[in-house]
Amino acid sequence: MIVGGLVGGAIGAPLGVHLANRRRGDVLPAFLASAGVQVLTVVLARSLYQEDQIRAGDRVLFMLGPAVQVGTSVTIELGMSR
């Protein structure tokens, strides 16, 4: 389930942005950037995780990952479609 969520998140954000942009840009760079953000989010989550608890500030950092993925996908897609 976790791996499926990671793969789906890395593929879903850039694909959704690409389709919303009427397929005008190049989706491959957005896929690669999204996968990179996903890896960085997992590394960050792994480094902040403690066996007994996750602090409130750490939760905010975990939630920034998907927002950064969508932001990079939009930026790349719009940049490629011009």
Task: Walk me through this protein's architecture.
With 82 residues, the protein is an all-alpha fold. The chain has one domain (2-80). The chain contains 3 helices and no strands. It has helices at 2-20, 27-48, 56-80. Helix 2 (27-48) packs antiparallel against helix 3. The radius of gyration is 14 Å and the shape is elongated. It starts with a helix and ends with a helix.
Offer a quick outline of the entry.
This protein has helices at residues 2-20, 27-48, 56-80. The protein is an all-alpha fold and 82 residues long. The N and C termini lie far apart (37 Å).
The residue fraction in helices comes out at: over 70%
Radius of gyration: 14 Å
Q: In terms of per-residue confidence, which ranges show pLDDT below 50 for 5 or more consecutive residues?
A: none
Oligomer: single chain
Mean pLDDT: 83
Taken in chain order, the helices and strands follow as HHH
Strand content: under 5%
Task: Give the termini distance in whole angstroms.
Answer: 37 Å
> What composes the largest sheet?
none
- How many structural domains? 1
Structural class of the secondary structure composition? mainly alpha
Q: What is the tally of helical segments?
A: 3
Report the count of strand segments. Answer: 0
Gross geometry: elongated
